[in-house]
Design a protein that fits this description.
861 residues; alpha+beta; Rossmann fold; 4 domains; six-stranded antiparallel sheet; six-stranded mixed sheet; 25 helices
């Protein structure tokens, strides 16, 4: 028998357009057809897969451009029609996403007669044998899927899983081989476990990298130094205790990390700060301790003395900035909690100020998001290993193959700048001169053989960066053109022609940011790119890390708000109010470490009135609200997004959040989860490990006592009959919610005649019970630690008074996911069970010739 097309994951049904006519559910088919008919005529990508939420009726039309060509197709775009009458769809593009969603088991989406279905099914079968579907919560995104495959010792080549050998290819002629994932993630990952906060920020803002010298003033045991040296960075240090004899040396970057806060002498504190700053040729990074909830020690001088006889001076963020600026007489740029940069020259300071308005990793993102690759002569392309011999190559092709790595690097530089570089901006200039003769010659090769549409995108990005910088300068004294650092001068000339036109463009950007209609249009565009959560025409809320990827008018809007509140380093979420001219900044506790972070402070900036209000949370009167649906405000590229999304979807399915925009309080959520026999562990909802009160609700209609004290023998003897394993209470709850509550909703009240049976109770029941099979023991264990009934789950017997139990039985068989059901007669209770893996076996007890009741498969069951 041929199975109908489509796959169902929880409540979502997927089917390919080519198999739509074979969908059995007419309502689902009609809903999809109506959505297709409502699509606009011209779209970026043509959708080819439909997804229907079987519970709500929401329809998503999905575009997988390589559905037939790719083993696991990547999602390019989605059109979402909300429940109710089909009307205008919301649009989401995934073209600029490094980690887009992918599709598994695509063979289920097409008709059984499709000629490729068997091939795709074989690939799925191989993936199952490799264990790739064992943990399905995070595999729906490309990077996570590829890393999982690699962790199993394989790589995907076409439609085959190929074992990883002892060596991987190091052929530099392969296009962008190093851009298989987010660029430069190794430094970031290392910094989270080994580097101090100031060094992390130096790496983040690209002030510290290979070719830059680093000196750690007060380096302690030298953890940062050894980590940086391992990364190929020239790093040295001095410490009065661990390295007192090391020389104090000048360096491009000097770090004074958590030093001044341990000096009890205020005069010596100033001396350390000024001495460290004098060593910095480019910048000094300073790290201090900020005030926290509990301060160990007792007051001493202007700080605290600890039990170990050490000293700590704590700062507030504002106090820290003022202190550094007062001592060094230069602007301090606070870039993180307790971390600031101070620059040694106006030119370096100007470069950093400009960099704060520049999108990072523009080249890497363009090269890593599936954008067109360089246009090379056919004979110069990499040769597949399966070819037995190489075709003859022309001299031009041979030369291109030789210089390809140099040109790739030059191309990445051009994409990062958005324009052709000057000689001093090219890192590998000497190699280019040696192999190609000159930079102009190399540029001609690039213009001829690389896709220039990418350069146009990069140029637009950098033009908007520059407009934003010049817009913010309207609020300060604008430097003359000759006072600008060289890179800014080149950018202005390349993108605007002259300084006057550039300044006019910056002013126009400010004017645009004051027009609600243009702000709304920009917010809608951002939402289609997955940059934030759009609430109608009211607001756009997103993580602060995505601000630099917003359309220029929104970046200007946010920048205007930050003129009034320049403490973005402690902010995680930004909310753009479209019509009111307001900007809300939110600080949350444990944002990256907790799936449900709590709001600690909210700053509402009124840009038009040049005013701001600060709301502090954490008191009895104003407890800290919980942030629900955190994944809405993140992007697929954000670290941990996949786990957060899986958690949010699991919590949403519980129905505990309701329709409220804000959701329950933390205490209410904990209570509600316990009622559902759930708990939160890391980023997962897991079964509860507590034992509830017997009179606590077990589903809508029962308590746990209902299942424990319902049997005739238990009532007659008054046995405790208490479950000892928390898993038993979980199983009873699942039985009540999944089976009994729906029966009561349809037929009315039921009467339990036999529920949970402990070992003590079963010993008192004479005959006709099978504790090792009947699941009345639920998840209780015997003396050896093994389950009394290996089937697990839970069971009960019940009757619906004044109903034919045969009719009840057939309704359950048709509508509910039971495990095992035994029908004894129209006027007798039925036995029913439920487990995590219900087998849905229904039996009728029939009298045999010997007078014994024998189970037979239920007719129609």
């Amino acid at each position: 028998m041929k199975s109908p097309p489509g796959k169902t994951i929880v409540d979502e049904f997927y089917v390919h357009f080519s198999a739509l006519e074979h969908v059995e559910n007419e309502a689902t088919k009609l809903r999809i057809q109506q959505a297709i008919a409502a699509m606009v005529a011209s779209v970026e990508e043509a959708p080819n897969v439909a997804k229907v939420n079987l519970r709500s009726g929401r329809v998503s039309l999905l575009a997988y451009p390589e559905f037939f060509e790719s083993a696991f197709p990547t999602l390019a775009a989605a059109w979402i029609f909300q429940p109710g009458p089909v009307s205008t769809a919301s649009f989401r593009s995934y073209r600029d996403t490094i980690n887009p969603p992918i599709l598994h088991r695509k063979e289920l989406l097409v008709a059984s007669s499709h000629p490729e279905r068997a091939v795709w099914a074989a690939l799925t079968s191989t993936a199952e044998r490799l264990g790739l579907f064992d943990e399905p919560s995070t595999i729906g995104f490309r990077l996570n899927w590829n890393r999982l495959i690699e962790s199993k010792g394989y790589r995907l080549v076409g439609d085959q899983f190929v074992p990883l050998g002892n060596e991987l290819s190091t052929d530099l002629s392969l296009p962008y081989a190093s851009l298989d994932g987010p660029v430069q993630r190794h430094l970031t990952a290392l910094s989270r476990t080994s580097f101090s906060a100031p060094v992390q920020m130096l790496v983040r803002y690209e002030l510290l990298h290979a070719g830059i010298s680093f000196f750690d003033y007060g380096c302690g045991r030298g953890g940062d130094i050894s980590g940086l040296v391992a990364e190929g960075i020239d790093a040295q240090g001095w410490d009065p205790h661990f390295l007192p004899d090391a020389p104090l040396a000048q360096a491009d970057i000097v770090n004074l990390g958590f030093v001044i806060n341990v000096i009890e002498d205020p005069a010596e504190r100033v001396e350390a700060l000024t001495r460290a700053f004098r060593l910095a040729r480019t910048a000094l990074s300073v790290g201090v301790m900020l005030y926290g909830g509990d301060i160990p020690g007792r007051p001493y001088l202007d700080g605290y003395r600890t039990s170990r006889n050490t000293f700590q001076k704590y700062f507030s963020q504002g106090e820290f900035k003022d202190y550094v600026e007062q001592v060094l007489h230069r602007d301090a740029f606070v870039v993180g909690p307790g971390v600031a940069f101070v620059f040694a020259s106006s030119e370096a300071e100007q470069r950093f100020s400009a960099s704060r308005y520049r999108r990072r990793n523009v080249a890497a993102r363009l090269l890593a998001t599936g954008s067109p690759k360089p246009i090379w002569p056919k004979s110069a392309r990499p040769i597949e290993s399966k070819e037995l011999r190489r075709p003859r190559m022309s001299r031009t092709a041979q030369r291109l193959a030789t210089v390809r790595p140099l040109l790739d690097q030059l191309w990445a530089t051009m994409l990062d700048l958005g324009r052709a570089p000057e000689a001093e901006e090219v890192a590998n200039l000497s190699e280019i001169d040696s192999q190609l003769g000159s930079l102009p010659t190399a540029l001609r090769f690039v213009y001829r053989h690389y896709n220039q549409s990418l350069l146009s995108i990069a140029a637009e990005t950098r033009t908007n960066d520059l407009r934003l910088l010049l817009a913010t300068q309207q609020f300060a004294q604008r430097p003359a053109y000759r006072q600008l650092e060289p890179r800014l001068q080149r950018d202005i000339k390349a993108f605007f022609g002259n300084y006057r036109l550039a300044e006019a463009a910056g002013m126009q950007l400010l004017l645009d940011a004051a027009e609600p209609a243009k702000v709304l249009t920009a917010c809608q565009l951002a939402a289609t790119q997955g940059l934030g959560w759009l609430q109608g025409d009211r607001s756009l809320q997103l993580h602060v890390a995505m601000v630099e990827r917003l359309p220029a008018v929104l970046r200007a809007y946010v920048a205007c708000g930050l003129i009034l509140w320049d403490a973005l380093s402690e902010v995680q979420l930004v909310k753009i109010h479209i019509s009111s001219g307001k900007l809300t900044l939110m600080e949350l506790d444990e944002f990256d470490d907790n799936p449900l972070p709590r709001l600690s402070r909210r700053i509402k900036v009124n840009i038009r009135k040049l005013d701001c209000d600060v709301f502090q949370y954490g008191s009895a009167q104003y407890p800290k609200p919980v942030l629900y649906r955190k994944s809405r405000y993140l992007h697929e590229d954000y670290p941990g997004f996949v786990n957060q999304l899986a958690f949010d979807e699991a919590l949403e399915r519980t129905g505990l959040l309701g329709d409220s925009e804000f959701g329950p309080s933390a205490e209410q959520l904990t209570l509600s989860l316990e009622i559902c026999r759930l708990a939160i562990a890391d980023y997962r909802l897991v079964p509860s490990t507590t034992i509830p009160d017997l009179d606590a609700s077990c589903g809508t209609n029962f308590t746990y006592r209902s299942f424990i004290e319902c049997g005739e023998t238990q009532r007659r003897l008054g046995l405790p009959n208490l479950p000892l394993n928390p898993k038993t209470y979980n199983a009873l709850h699942a039985l009540a919610v999944t089976i009994l509550d729906p029966v009561i909703e349809y037929f009315g009240p039921i009467r339990l005649t036999y529920g949970f049976a402990s070992a003590t109770l079963t010993r008192q029941i004479a005959g006709r019970i099978a504790p090792r099979l009947d699941q009345h023991a639920a998840c209780e264990q015997g003396g050896s630690g093994a389950l009394i009934c290996r089937r697990g789950g839970a069971a009960c017997d019940f009757i619906v008074d004044d109903e034919d139990m045969k009719e009840v039985t057939h309704w359950i068989v048709k509508h509910l996911p039971f495990d095992r059901l035994y029908f004894y007669g129209s006027e007798r209770p039925i036995h029913i069970s439920f487990s995590a893996t219900p087998v849905q076996q229904a039996f009728q007890l029939a009298m045999s010739s010997s007078g014994r009741l024998v189970p037979r498969p239920l007719a129609g069951g």
